[in-house]
Design a protein that fits this description.
389 residues
Length: 389
């Protein structure tokens, strides 16, 4: 018999049980619960995320097919009716808090972003998860369409979400940004946002907190040029680097300070971009590269939608949907934690696929990270495999 527990067991160990139980106690998650406690529920949701299960019956069969391994996981056999009740009634705030605690451990070992400056770099953005309004009547978005919106403050030092807020689909991006607490925006940080976040009152608040922003100027923005910040270098794509002041009646009152307008032409596509920022230190080419870096959050949204279960749901209640999304976010952070801690060279996608294929096998996580694709069949063919260093 191998001395290893399963890969799933080692993943669950990355979520300290005492911390989890303290969160459950605070939310009274196990109050009058007889069959499926919060740990069993969380492990089941995580199992469904990793293995890509499509339904409650699929989850039930997958877990109950391996009863000899459930004891070490702190789990019991489940029934889909019990899981459905837990999805509807177990407070989703429990898993939101587990996400925040996991995030704290990821921050301790995160890498640095690729730019030379030392300022923290974030992107604030949102994505919509479409839902059927007839099935999810609480998620009103449009007349015949339902949705929830996932707002993310994306940290470029490691490419993971540092703040996640879920709202209904009607909540505008800029409104949510204004509702975020002041602690979210650290002084000296640089925030990348698109045009949807252009609210000059909010941008002025960022400036007063000592933060910087980079965004694209709207076509109808009224301004007056005060002077030239840098000389144009058309051979490198820089058409203008101006110091400006807003002249619109309302915008000038909301943002009375000076701004910087960088006009840059992409030599590959020939498209002209106008970048608006309150940072007068970085070079204009760095400003252009910073906005291009904002695309990483779009790649993050694409990744989680393609590789995690956040587009189809195991329950129709709001609590069930949010619990499933929070468990997906926790799993993403666990993948980041493993990658940073072990200095794993392959991609998160490769890591997630290896874990999915060996989830219930008895193999050490460290050995799994050294595993090559051609050796994967050996693990799938023998449960008692013990890799050697």
């Amino acid at each position: 018999m191998s001395h290893y527990n399963t890969v799933f067991h080692e993943l669950l160990k990355l979520v300290p049980r005492h911390e989890f139980e303290s969160v459950v106690f605070r939310h009274q998650g196990d109050y009058r619960v007889r069959k499926m406690n919060c740990w069993n529920h969380f492990a089941t949701l995580l199992y469904a995320q990793i293995s890509g299960k499509d339904s409650l019956r699929d989850i039930e069969v997958g877990i109950n097919a391996q009863p000899e391994k459930l004891y070490h996981l702190g789990m019991k056999e489940i029934r889909r009716s019990t899981l459905s009740d837990a999805n509807n009634n177990r407070p989703c705030e429990i898993y939101e808090e587990i996400f925040e605690k996991t995030l704290g451990r990821v921050y301790q070992i995160t890498t640095k972003h690729k730019f030379k400056f030392s300022n923290p770099l974030f992107t604030l953005d949102a994505t919509t998860i479409d839902l059927c309004l007839e099935v999810f009547p609480w998620a009103k978005f449009r007349k015949t369409k339902g949705a929830v919106k996932l707002h993310t403050l994306f940290d470029h030092s490691g490419y993971f979400p540092s703040v996640v807020v879920m709202t209904d689909g009607k909540t505008h991006d800029s409104k949510l940004a204004q509702e975020l607490s002041a602690d979210t925006f650290q002084a000296d940080s640089i925030f990348l946002v698109d045009k949807a976040y252009i609210c000059f009152k909010w941008l002025s608040g960022l400036t007063s907190r000592g933060c910087y922003f980079v965004t694209r100027a709207k076509d109808n923005m009224k301004y007056a040029s005060i002077g030239q910040h840098n000389q144009p270098q058309s051979e490198k794509g820089l058409l203008a680097d101006k110091i400006i002041r807003l002249t619109g009646f309302y915008t000038s009152q909301k943002y009375p300070d000076q701004l910087r307008l960088v006009i840059y032409k992409d030599r590959e596509t020939g498209k002209v971009y106008e970048f608006l920022t309150n940072n007068f230190t970085l070079s204009p080419f760095t400003i252009a590269k910073l906005y291009k870096e904002r695309w990483q959050v779009e790649l993050f949204y694409k990744w989680i939608k393609q590789n995690l279960k956040i587009k189809s749901f195991f329950g129709t209640s709001k609590n069930a949907v949010l619990s499933q999304i929070w468990s997906a976010m926790v799993y993403y952070l666990l993948l980041c934690y493993i990658k940073f801690q072990s200095r794993y060279k392959n991609s998160l996608l490769y890591l997630s696929r290896i874990i999915r294929e060996t989830l219930m096998e008895r193999v050490g996580l460290i050995d799994l990270l050294k595993l090559k694709v051609e050796n994967l069949a050996r693990i799938k063919n023998t449960i008692q495999l013990c890799l050697q260093f």
